[in-house]
Amino acid sequence: MAYTFQVTVDSAHPHELADWWADALGWEVEPSDEKFIRRMVEEGQATEADTTTHRGVLVWKAGTGIRHPEGLQRAPRILFQFIPDPKTVKNRVHLDVRTGEDDPRAVVDRLIAKGARHLHEGNQGPSTWTTLADPEGNELCVSH
Predict the structure, then answer these.
(1) Closest to 67 measured CA to CA, from 136, 7, 3, 134
(2) pTM score, whole prediction
């Protein structure tokens, strides 16, 4: 049996990091269902402390997800969840962002302008990539 999966990223600021990654990948932040959140609070299944406001919208404090514009059949969901502990060591898993027809250097420059940090350039045979850190220090590689 084959399983599906989502990628989960621990984050001190999950909604802001989801925005950053959605922009970086050309994906979409999942819309918040404010009516559902309000109903959960009214029914006592959640509290006001479980919610926050992000860009003027009521959201779950615990985090949010992003999706490929073509849906889950195209790529797995990425969930950004609130974890108060700061990142302290190198990731053991990271995303490799493939730019397709876009110039990888232009993508790297755009991500750095939006808060990524350059870590190093890599190569193996004919393959080359740039390793960056997102605004919370999570590594990612950008290549063709």
Answers:
(1) 7
(2) 0.93
